Description:
By secondary structure, this protein is an alpha/beta fold. The chain contains eleven helices and ten strands. The protein has an eight-stranded parallel sheet with strand order 9-8-7-6-5-4-3-10. The chain has a two-stranded antiparallel sheet with strand order 1-2. Helix 4 links the parallel strand 5 (113-116) and strand 6 (132-135). Helix 5 packs across helix 6. The radius of gyration is 19 Å and the shape is globular. The protein starts with 11 loop residues before the first helix and ends with a helix. The model is unreliable at 292-314 (pLDDT under 50). The structure holds phosphoenolpyruvate and manganese (II) ion.
Amino acid sequence: MRIAGQVHIDDIPKICPLVSRAANPQYGEVGTRVVEVAGVRFGGGRPVVIGGPCAVESHAQTVGLAHAVKRAGADMLRGGAYKPRTSPHDFQGSGLEGLCILSIAREETGLPIVTEVMDPRLVGEVAQVADMLQVGSRNMHNYILLAEVGRARKPILLKRGMSASLCEWLGAAEYIAKQGNLDIVLCERGIRGFPSGEYSRYVLDLNVIPAAKMLTFLPIIVDPSHATGVSAMVEPASRAALEMGSHGLLIEVADISFGEPKCDGLQAIDAAALARIVQFAHEKKAVRSQESGVRSKKETQSSSALKATLALPS
Ligand code: PEP
Ligand code: MN
């Protein structure tokens, strides 16, 4: 039976010619396009760790956390000035003032900033401050926004829609790429499944990491904070994501000496836990470079072995 509107993973080269690995043989079977954000390299061998608050709430909170994130050894600062909230009566972010605070935090710490933009009309404004623009899970299907950020000439962090298939996610990346911007980093942040909400916020889909790597040359990172919704799960989920081949992590951090966070406090970790994750990520890199030394000796074997292990279509 043929059904309207269905796309299959085999269709990716046809529907996503700009981001598909098969349609861009220059990347080979395992090559990654390195996306550079103010000197930080996604897909460049060393996993990138991004830490920071869920929302920019105040100067003291965000700048204080930025220093803590820097001391923990992370590479970039995250923080939402515009927040997508379930209730319109909840804190919606501090907007323009939040953007100013983020730029102060960057000035003081040197950490590049990733922050979310939700409104196509605000892309220019947010891009003036952000080193990387985040498209959130709820907006992955917002094709007007995707085209607008594609024109912004800034690297994009594209979160996976919470109910999006891999094909739909890559289709969203293709919308950005169509505007001439291939500086896209994918971010898995958990998907809806039947147990989501029972013992964790979403279901962290780590299997999508090797699958995405087969289908696209774009780097992929993981957000263990929104995926789990439970601070105690963030550290093991981070290690698991790196083991599965994630090019980096996006993690929410809080310090209650600045007051209880206005959103997502239950999933935030402290700076000490972030430092342990950074250390694990650095050790992982050392192991990986030893492995790649071994692999380069039998390189033809490695990519076909990877395919066979994953049992994915070639
Ligand atoms: C966020 O990272 O701030 C966020 C809102 O995440 P998501 O879009 O994945 O829910
Ligand atoms: Mn959050």
